[in-house]
Protein backbone atom coordinates (compact mmCIF):
# COMPACT_ATOMS: atom_id res chain seq x y z
CA UNK A 1 0.00 0.00 0.00
CA UNK A 2 1.34 3.45 -0.92
CA UNK A 3 0.33 6.54 0.99
CA UNK A 4 1.04 10.19 0.20
CA UNK A 5 0.67 12.66 3.04
CA UNK A 6 -1.16 15.65 1.50
CA UNK A 7 -0.04 17.96 4.33
CA UNK A 8 3.65 17.40 3.56
CA UNK A 9 3.79 16.93 -0.23
CA UNK A 10 4.93 19.99 -2.20
CA UNK A 11 4.37 18.46 -5.63
CA UNK A 12 7.98 18.29 -6.84
CA UNK A 13 7.34 15.13 -8.96
CA UNK A 14 10.62 13.49 -7.92
CA UNK A 15 8.79 10.27 -6.98
CA UNK A 16 7.17 10.14 -10.43
CA UNK A 17 10.59 10.59 -12.06
CA UNK A 18 12.57 8.21 -9.86
CA UNK A 19 10.15 5.26 -9.74
CA UNK A 20 11.66 2.40 -11.81
CA UNK A 21 8.22 0.91 -12.52
CA UNK A 22 6.26 4.10 -13.31
CA UNK A 23 3.82 3.52 -10.45
CA UNK A 24 2.96 7.18 -9.97
CA UNK A 25 1.10 9.55 -12.22
CA UNK A 26 0.49 13.23 -11.63
CA UNK A 27 -3.06 14.05 -10.59
CA UNK A 28 -4.95 16.41 -12.90
CA UNK A 29 -6.68 18.36 -10.13
CA UNK A 30 -4.84 20.35 -7.47
CA UNK A 31 -5.69 20.03 -3.79
CA UNK A 32 -6.63 22.93 -1.49
CA UNK A 33 -2.96 23.94 -1.15
CA UNK A 34 -2.55 24.15 -4.93
CA UNK A 35 -0.36 21.04 -5.07
CA UNK A 36 -0.77 18.44 -7.83
CA UNK A 37 -0.26 15.34 -5.72
CA UNK A 38 1.29 12.17 -7.19
CA UNK A 39 -1.24 9.41 -7.61
CA UNK A 40 -0.06 5.77 -7.14
CA UNK A 41 -2.15 4.57 -10.06
CA UNK A 42 -0.25 1.43 -11.08
CA UNK A 43 0.20 0.19 -7.55
CA UNK A 44 0.22 -3.48 -8.62
CA UNK A 45 3.54 -2.84 -10.41
CA UNK A 46 5.27 -1.72 -7.18
CA UNK A 47 8.29 -3.87 -6.27
CA UNK A 48 8.71 -2.26 -2.80
CA UNK A 49 12.16 -0.87 -3.53
CA UNK A 50 11.40 2.13 -1.27
CA UNK A 51 13.29 4.46 -3.62
CA UNK A 52 10.39 6.95 -3.59
CA UNK A 53 10.60 7.10 0.21
CA UNK A 54 14.31 7.96 -0.05
CA UNK A 55 13.84 10.42 -2.92
CA UNK A 56 10.94 12.30 -1.29
CA UNK A 57 12.43 15.59 0.00
CA UNK A 58 9.37 16.24 2.15
CA UNK A 59 9.03 12.81 3.81
CA UNK A 60 5.50 12.53 2.43
CA UNK A 61 5.52 9.06 0.82
CA UNK A 62 5.09 5.80 2.65
CA UNK A 63 5.33 2.32 1.10
CA UNK A 64 4.05 -0.57 3.17
CA UNK A 65 5.81 -3.90 2.80
CA UNK A 66 3.63 -6.92 2.15
CA UNK A 67 2.82 -8.83 5.28
CA UNK A 68 4.21 -12.34 5.51
CA UNK A 69 1.14 -13.99 7.04
CA UNK B 1 9.15 0.27 19.40
CA UNK B 2 6.35 -1.82 17.87
CA UNK B 3 4.15 1.23 17.54
CA UNK B 4 6.92 2.98 15.59
CA UNK B 5 7.17 0.07 13.18
CA UNK B 6 3.43 -0.19 12.72
CA UNK B 7 2.78 3.53 12.33
CA UNK B 8 2.06 4.24 8.69
CA UNK B 9 4.39 7.06 7.84
CA UNK B 10 7.69 7.72 6.11
CA UNK B 11 10.56 6.01 8.02
CA UNK B 12 12.43 9.32 8.39
CA UNK B 13 9.57 11.02 10.20
CA UNK B 14 10.26 9.33 13.51
CA UNK B 15 13.53 11.27 13.81
CA UNK B 16 12.00 14.65 12.91
CA UNK B 17 10.23 17.31 14.92
CA UNK B 18 6.79 16.81 13.41
CA UNK B 19 5.39 20.07 14.78
CA UNK B 20 7.88 21.98 12.58
CA UNK B 21 6.89 20.19 9.37
CA UNK B 22 6.44 20.82 6.46
CA UNK B 23 9.93 22.26 6.41
CA UNK B 24 11.00 25.58 4.92
CA UNK B 25 12.83 24.15 1.86
CA UNK B 26 11.45 24.77 -1.61
CA UNK B 27 9.59 22.00 -3.42
CA UNK B 28 12.15 19.57 -4.87
CA UNK B 29 15.08 20.79 -2.75
CA UNK B 30 17.78 18.16 -2.27
CA UNK B 31 18.16 18.77 1.47
CA UNK B 32 15.26 16.45 2.30
CA UNK B 33 16.73 13.61 0.21
CA UNK B 34 20.05 13.98 2.03
CA UNK B 35 18.20 13.92 5.36
CA UNK B 36 16.49 10.64 4.38
CA UNK B 37 19.83 9.17 3.25
CA UNK B 38 21.46 10.25 6.49
CA UNK B 39 18.85 8.42 8.58
CA UNK B 40 19.16 5.33 6.40
CA UNK B 41 22.95 5.41 6.77
CA UNK B 42 22.65 6.00 10.49
CA UNK B 43 20.32 3.02 10.87
CA UNK B 44 22.56 0.70 8.86
CA UNK B 45 25.63 1.86 10.84
CA UNK B 46 23.66 0.99 14.01
CA UNK B 47 24.48 4.32 15.61
CA UNK B 48 22.82 5.47 18.82
CA UNK B 49 20.58 8.35 17.76
CA UNK B 50 20.66 9.87 21.27
CA UNK B 51 24.45 10.12 21.12
CA UNK B 52 24.49 12.18 17.92
CA UNK B 53 25.01 15.94 18.04
CA UNK B 54 24.49 18.01 14.91
CA UNK B 55 26.32 21.25 14.20
CA UNK B 56 25.53 23.64 11.38
CA UNK B 57 26.39 27.13 10.23
CA UNK B 58 24.34 29.48 8.07
CA UNK B 59 22.54 28.62 4.84
CA UNK B 60 19.62 26.60 3.53
CA UNK B 61 21.34 23.28 4.27
CA UNK B 62 22.32 24.45 7.73
CA UNK B 63 18.67 24.62 8.73
CA UNK B 64 18.49 20.79 8.66
CA UNK B 65 19.49 20.17 12.34
CA UNK B 66 16.59 22.37 13.44
CA UNK B 67 14.18 19.70 12.18
CA UNK B 68 15.92 16.70 13.79
CA UNK B 69 15.09 15.46 17.29
CA UNK B 70 18.65 15.52 18.60
CA UNK B 71 21.04 17.93 20.29
CA UNK B 72 22.15 20.57 17.81
CA UNK B 73 24.16 23.74 17.52
CA UNK B 74 23.28 26.44 15.01
CA UNK B 75 26.40 28.55 14.83
CA UNK B 76 27.86 31.58 13.08
CA UNK B 77 28.54 31.64 9.36
CA UNK B 78 31.35 29.33 8.29
CA UNK B 79 32.39 28.48 11.84
CA UNK B 80 30.44 25.23 12.22
CA UNK B 81 33.65 23.17 11.98
CA UNK B 82 35.37 25.33 14.62
CA UNK B 83 32.41 24.82 16.99
CA UNK B 84 32.31 21.10 16.18
CA UNK B 85 36.05 20.76 16.88
CA UNK B 86 35.48 22.26 20.33
CA UNK B 87 32.47 20.04 20.97
CA UNK B 88 34.31 16.88 19.94
CA UNK B 89 37.45 17.74 21.92
CA UNK B 90 35.36 18.54 24.99
CA UNK B 91 33.43 15.29 24.82
CA UNK B 92 35.10 12.73 22.51
CA UNK B 93 32.34 10.18 23.15
CA UNK B 94 29.79 12.21 21.17
CA UNK B 95 29.19 11.43 17.50
CA UNK B 96 29.38 14.89 15.98
CA UNK B 97 27.79 15.39 12.56
CA UNK B 98 28.24 18.67 10.71
CA UNK B 99 25.74 19.74 8.04
CA UNK B 100 27.18 22.49 5.95
CA UNK B 101 26.60 24.13 2.63
CA UNK B 102 29.06 25.11 -0.06
CA UNK B 103 29.07 28.77 0.97
CA UNK B 104 29.61 27.75 4.56
CA UNK B 105 32.36 25.17 4.00
CA UNK B 106 34.15 26.41 0.89
CA UNK B 107 33.79 30.20 0.96
CA UNK B 108 33.79 31.73 4.43
CA UNK B 109 34.84 28.59 6.29
CA UNK B 110 37.38 27.30 3.78
CA UNK B 111 40.29 27.58 6.16
CA UNK B 112 38.42 25.79 8.94
CA UNK B 113 37.65 22.97 6.51
CA UNK B 114 41.21 22.28 5.40
CA UNK B 115 42.60 22.56 8.93
CA UNK B 116 39.95 20.23 10.38
CA UNK B 117 40.94 17.75 7.67
CA UNK B 118 44.64 18.28 8.39
CA UNK B 119 44.12 17.58 12.11
CA UNK B 120 41.97 14.57 11.20
CA UNK B 121 39.49 15.12 14.01
CA UNK B 122 36.72 12.51 14.20
CA UNK B 123 33.80 14.43 12.64
CA UNK B 124 31.35 13.46 9.92
CA UNK B 125 30.92 16.42 7.62
CA UNK B 126 28.09 16.34 5.08
CA UNK B 127 28.64 19.18 2.65
CA UNK B 128 25.53 19.92 0.61
CA UNK B 129 26.84 21.55 -2.53
CA UNK B 130 24.11 23.18 -4.59
CA UNK B 131 26.56 25.28 -6.66
CA UNK B 132 24.93 28.59 -5.71
CA UNK B 133 24.05 30.76 -2.70
CA UNK B 134 20.40 29.71 -2.49
CA UNK B 135 19.35 31.53 0.66
CA UNK B 136 20.44 35.02 -0.32
CA UNK B 137 19.19 35.15 -3.89
CA UNK B 138 21.30 33.09 -6.27
CA UNK B 139 24.78 34.59 -6.13
CA UNK B 140 27.71 32.65 -7.60
CA UNK B 141 29.53 30.50 -5.04
CA UNK B 142 33.12 29.14 -5.12
CA UNK B 143 31.79 25.81 -6.41
CA UNK B 144 29.65 27.13 -9.29
CA UNK B 145 30.70 25.42 -12.51
CA UNK B 146 32.48 27.60 -15.07
CA UNK B 147 29.96 29.18 -17.38
CA UNK B 148 26.95 28.76 -15.10
CA UNK B 149 24.69 31.75 -14.57
CA UNK B 150 23.72 33.42 -11.34
CA UNK B 151 22.40 36.77 -10.21
CA UNK B 152 25.97 38.07 -9.84
CA UNK B 153 27.14 36.43 -13.08
CA UNK B 154 24.79 37.52 -15.91
CA UNK B 155 27.45 36.51 -18.50
CA UNK B 156 28.34 33.22 -16.79
CA UNK B 157 30.86 32.43 -14.06
CA UNK B 158 34.41 33.11 -15.28
CA UNK B 159 36.42 31.32 -12.58
CA UNK B 160 37.24 27.65 -12.21
CA UNK B 161 35.26 26.04 -9.38
CA UNK B 162 36.63 24.54 -6.19
CA UNK B 163 36.80 20.74 -6.24
CA UNK B 164 35.91 20.17 -2.60
CA UNK B 165 36.37 16.40 -2.40
CA UNK B 166 39.83 16.59 -4.02
CA UNK B 167 40.76 19.53 -1.77
CA UNK B 168 39.86 17.69 1.43
CA UNK B 169 41.60 14.51 0.20
CA UNK B 170 44.76 16.53 -0.34
CA UNK B 171 44.40 18.08 3.12
CA UNK B 172 44.55 14.59 4.63
CA UNK B 173 41.04 13.48 5.59
CA UNK B 174 40.40 9.82 6.45
CA UNK B 175 37.27 9.29 4.37
CA UNK B 176 36.16 11.40 1.41
CA UNK B 177 33.32 10.67 -1.01
CA UNK B 178 31.22 12.61 -3.48
CA UNK B 179 27.71 11.61 -4.56
CA UNK B 180 24.70 13.41 -5.93
CA UNK B 181 21.07 13.41 -4.82
CA UNK B 182 20.20 10.93 -7.59
CA UNK B 183 22.32 8.26 -5.85
CA UNK B 184 20.57 8.15 -2.44
CA UNK B 185 21.48 4.50 -1.77
CA UNK B 186 25.19 5.01 -2.49
CA UNK B 187 25.03 8.22 -0.47
CA UNK B 188 23.60 6.42 2.56
CA UNK B 189 26.36 3.80 2.28
CA UNK B 190 28.95 6.60 2.19
CA UNK B 191 27.35 8.20 5.27
CA UNK B 192 27.45 4.82 7.01
CA UNK B 193 31.17 4.48 6.24
CA UNK B 194 31.78 8.09 7.27
CA UNK B 195 30.07 7.61 10.63
CA UNK B 196 32.11 4.48 11.29
CA UNK B 197 35.45 5.96 10.19
CA UNK B 198 37.70 7.00 13.05
CA UNK B 199 38.88 10.31 11.64
CA UNK B 200 37.70 13.22 9.53
CA UNK B 201 35.09 12.01 7.05
CA UNK B 202 33.83 14.37 4.39
CA UNK B 203 30.88 13.53 2.18
CA UNK B 204 30.17 16.05 -0.55
CA UNK B 205 26.66 15.82 -1.99
CA UNK B 206 25.87 17.63 -5.23
CA UNK B 207 22.32 18.83 -4.66
CA UNK B 208 19.72 20.56 -6.76
CA UNK B 209 18.51 24.11 -6.23
CA UNK B 210 15.67 24.41 -8.75
CA UNK B 211 14.63 27.81 -7.40
CA UNK B 212 17.88 29.67 -8.10
CA UNK B 213 20.46 27.48 -9.88
CA UNK B 214 17.78 25.83 -11.99
CA UNK B 215 15.96 29.00 -12.92
CA UNK B 216 19.14 30.78 -14.02
CA UNK B 217 20.49 27.77 -15.94
CA UNK B 218 17.43 26.52 -17.88
CA UNK B 219 16.79 23.62 -15.48
CA UNK B 220 13.66 25.09 -13.99
CA UNK B 221 12.07 22.02 -12.40
CA UNK B 222 13.56 19.52 -9.92
CA UNK B 223 13.01 16.77 -12.51
CA UNK B 224 15.14 18.66 -15.07
CA UNK B 225 17.88 19.05 -12.48
CA UNK B 226 18.05 15.37 -11.53
CA UNK B 227 18.05 14.40 -15.23
CA UNK B 228 21.01 16.78 -15.66
CA UNK B 229 22.80 15.04 -12.77
CA UNK B 230 22.11 11.62 -14.26
CA UNK B 231 23.55 12.72 -17.62
CA UNK B 232 26.65 14.48 -16.30
CA UNK B 233 27.95 12.16 -13.59
CA UNK B 234 30.99 9.93 -14.15
CA UNK B 235 32.14 7.29 -11.67
CA UNK B 236 35.66 7.94 -10.38
CA UNK B 237 37.07 4.63 -11.64
CA UNK B 238 36.00 5.55 -15.17
CA UNK B 239 37.03 9.18 -14.79
CA UNK B 240 40.62 8.20 -13.93
CA UNK B 241 40.99 6.88 -17.50
CA UNK B 242 39.48 9.96 -19.16
CA UNK B 243 41.29 13.10 -20.31
CA UNK B 244 40.64 16.58 -18.89
CA UNK B 245 38.79 17.64 -22.05
CA UNK B 246 36.43 14.70 -21.82
CA UNK B 247 35.76 15.50 -18.17
CA UNK B 248 34.80 19.12 -18.90
CA UNK B 249 31.39 19.81 -17.33
CA UNK B 250 31.19 16.37 -15.73
CA UNK B 251 30.64 15.58 -12.07
CA UNK B 252 33.01 12.88 -10.76
CA UNK B 253 31.30 10.71 -8.16
CA UNK B 254 32.69 7.97 -5.95
CA UNK B 255 35.03 7.38 -3.06
CA UNK B 256 38.14 9.59 -3.01
CA UNK B 257 39.94 8.51 0.16
CA UNK B 258 39.52 5.72 2.68
CA UNK B 259 42.55 5.42 4.93
CA UNK B 260 43.14 5.49 8.64
CA UNK B 261 45.71 7.69 10.29
CA UNK B 262 46.13 9.20 13.75
CA UNK B 263 43.03 10.86 15.15
CA UNK B 264 43.12 14.24 16.91
CA UNK B 265 41.15 13.69 20.14
CA UNK B 266 42.82 10.33 20.82
CA UNK B 267 46.24 11.99 20.41
CA UNK B 268 45.32 14.71 22.91
CA UNK B 269 43.93 12.15 25.36
CA UNK B 270 47.05 9.97 25.14
CA UNK B 271 49.31 13.00 25.60
CA UNK B 272 47.36 14.05 28.69
CA UNK B 273 47.53 10.56 30.18
CA UNK B 274 51.27 10.40 29.55
CA UNK B 275 51.98 13.82 31.05
CA UNK B 276 49.36 14.15 33.82
CA UNK B 277 48.03 10.64 34.36
CA UNK B 278 44.40 11.37 33.50
CA UNK B 279 42.40 12.29 30.38
CA UNK B 280 41.82 15.97 29.68
CA UNK B 281 38.09 15.90 29.38
CA UNK B 282 35.36 15.30 31.92
CA UNK B 283 31.75 14.79 30.99
CA UNK B 284 30.20 16.71 33.87
CA UNK B 285 30.85 20.24 35.06
CA UNK B 286 30.14 19.17 38.66
CA UNK B 287 32.38 16.11 38.98
CA UNK B 288 36.10 16.57 39.38
Automatic annotation (TrEMBL), chain A:
Where does the record locate the signal sequence feature? none
User: What Gene Ontology molecular-function terms does this entry list?
Assistant: oxidoreductase activity
Per its UniProt entry, what is the enzyme's top EC class, as one word?
oxidoreductase
Q: Could you tell me which Pfam families the record lists for this protein?
A: Fer4_7
Looking at the record, the residues that make up the 4Fe-4S ferredoxin-type domain are: 1-29, 36-66
Record's superkingdom?
A: Archaea
- Give the record's keywords alphabetically: Oxidoreductase
Q: Report the EC number(s), separated by commas if there are several.
A: 1.6.5.11
What is the recorded name of this protein?
Answer: NAD(P)H-quinone oxidoreductase subunit I, chloroplastic
The organism of origin for this protein: Methanobrevibacter filiformis
The gene that this protein is the product of is ndhI_2
Automatic annotation (TrEMBL), chain B:
Q: Which InterPro entries match?
A: 2-oxoacid:Fd_oxidoreductase, THDP-binding, TPP_enzyme_TPP-bd
A Pfam family of the record is: TPP_enzyme_C
Domain Thiamine pyrophosphate enzyme TPP-binding: where? 58-205
Q: Which SUPFAM superfamilies match?
A: Thiamin diphosphate-binding fold (THDP-binding)
Q: Which CDD domains match?
A: TPP_OGFOR
A single MF term (Gene Ontology) = thiamine pyrophosphate binding
Q: Which GO terms describe its biological process?
A: cellular respiration; organic acid metabolic process; sulfur compound biosynthetic process
Keywords for this entry?
Oxidoreductase
Q: Which PANTHER family match?
A: 2-OXOGLUTARATE OXIDOREDUCTASE SUBUNIT KORB-RELATED, 2-OXOGLUTARATE SYNTHASE SUBUNIT KORB
Q: What is this protein called?
A: 2-oxoglutarate oxidoreductase subunit KorB
- In its UniProt entry, the species of origin is given as Methanobrevibacter filiformis
| Primary gene name | korB_1
Amino acid sequence: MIKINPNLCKGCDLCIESCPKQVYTKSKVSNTKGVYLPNPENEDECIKCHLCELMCPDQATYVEDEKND
Amino acid sequence: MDSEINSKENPSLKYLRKDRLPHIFCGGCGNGIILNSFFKGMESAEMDFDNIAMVSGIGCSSRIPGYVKCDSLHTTHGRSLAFATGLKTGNPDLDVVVFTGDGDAAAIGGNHLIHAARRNINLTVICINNNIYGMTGGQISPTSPKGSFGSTAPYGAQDAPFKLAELVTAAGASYVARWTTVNPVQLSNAIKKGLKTDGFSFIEVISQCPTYFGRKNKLRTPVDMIRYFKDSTVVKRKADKMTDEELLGKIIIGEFANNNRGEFTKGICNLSIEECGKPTYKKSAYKL
